[in-house]
Design a protein that fits this description.
The structure is a homodimer. The first copy, chain A, is 79% helix and 0% strand. Chain A has helices at residues 3-16, 19-28, 36-55, 59-81. Chain A starts with a helix and ends with a helix.
Amino acid sequence: MDNQILGLLAAILTTSAYLPQTYKVAKTKSAKDFSWMWLIFMWIGIFLWFIYGLRINNLPLILANGISIISLTIIGVVKYVYRQS
Amino acid sequence: MDNQILGLLAAILTTSAYLPQTYKVAKTKSAKDFSWMWLIFMWIGIFLWFIYGLRINNLPLILANGISIISLTIIGVVKYVYRQS
């Protein structure tokens, strides 16, 4: 299997694994399953992976982390906006 | 910042984000917060990232996913072994 396809397959799997949770968080307006510590560590980490992917011109890294950043941002925004409920 | 350092920093952040949960799962012998679907998608995805990292000889990818595979395997084993409780 060509490396690029392998990387893209990995990217699709680890990115799509978060989509059901992101959808559930957006629908239920509740992100209590996610701790702020985990969210912050992951957000910064995935952002660095994204920058790293851009720098070494690696498509799987750019796609996986570009989409994951959006998922995590949605979860973080919901967690902050609906923190009282 | 040198690319390798940037990649290793990203690897440390996204890998260590899972350590508290892995520790909690191992200590409480409960992995109910994790769905099987998420675990399987992530396990296969991270395993493919690990192989991809080996193939393109990328240290950050090898380290991050090599350690994450261990975390996920611990969570999966606990979830299976203590599934009745």
